[in-house]
Amino acid sequence: MRLLLVNSNTTDAVTARIEAEARAAAAPGTVVEAMTAPFGLPLIVTRADWQVAGTATLAALGARAGHYDAAIIACFGDPGLDAAKMLAGVPVLGISEAAFHAACMLGKRFGVVSFTRDLQPMFEMCLDLHGLRGRCSGFRMGPSFSGDPGRVAEEAVPLVRQLVAEAIGEDGAEVVIVAGGPLAGVARLLAPETPVPLIDGTAAAVSLAEALVRLSPSLPRQAPRAPVGLDPALSAFYRG
Prior knowledge:
By secondary structure, the protein is an alpha/beta fold. It is built from nine helices and eight strands.
C-alpha cells in the first residue's frame, strides 16, 4: 500500500517530522511518501493562507497522481480536501478530519490543544464542516506564534503538556487531540503520562487511510475537464 502525505505549508522540517510520525504509525508493508507544498506559506494560519494552501496541495497531489493508493492532507485545516476527494479517484483524508472522527470513536467529548491560538478559527471551521462542534469540549491554545514552524515540536512540549492537563481537568475532555502538523509526534511522546487517549492527526490519518484502501480501493472521480492556465500538475489532475 502506498500512502502520500502532503504538507500544505512550505517548511521542509515540518514535512520531515510528519513523514517520521507517519512511518511510525504505518502498518508493516505500507510505503509512506511525504512531500512539501510546491508554493505557499511557511505556516498556514489565516483563511487567506488556507485558500492558497488548498491550491498548492492539489498541485502536489496532481504531481504524484497514479503513484499512491491513498492520500493524506497533512495540515490541520485540511486545505483542498473536498476538491481532492473529487479529483483523486482514491481515498483522500485530512489530518483534522481523521483526528476528529477518531476522537469521536474513543470518547464522547474531545478537546483540542495546539501551540498557537492563531489556528483556532481554522480548526472551528473544520469542526463545523464535519458537524462535530457539539462533540468538542473546548480549545486550549498557546500564544500567537512568530517563530520557526520546524522547531515547534521541540520547543512546545511543556506548553502542550500543560494544555492537555487543562483540557482534561477543566474542560472534561475524554480524548485530547494534539493538533497541527508541526506537532506531529508530540502526542506519542506524551501518551504514557496522560490518563486519556491522545490523538495525533498524522497517525490517525495513516491508520484510517490504510483501512479505507482495504474497504474501497478506488472511488468515482469527476469527469475530465480542460483547465486553462493552471499549474501543469494541477491541470493534469483535472484532465485525469
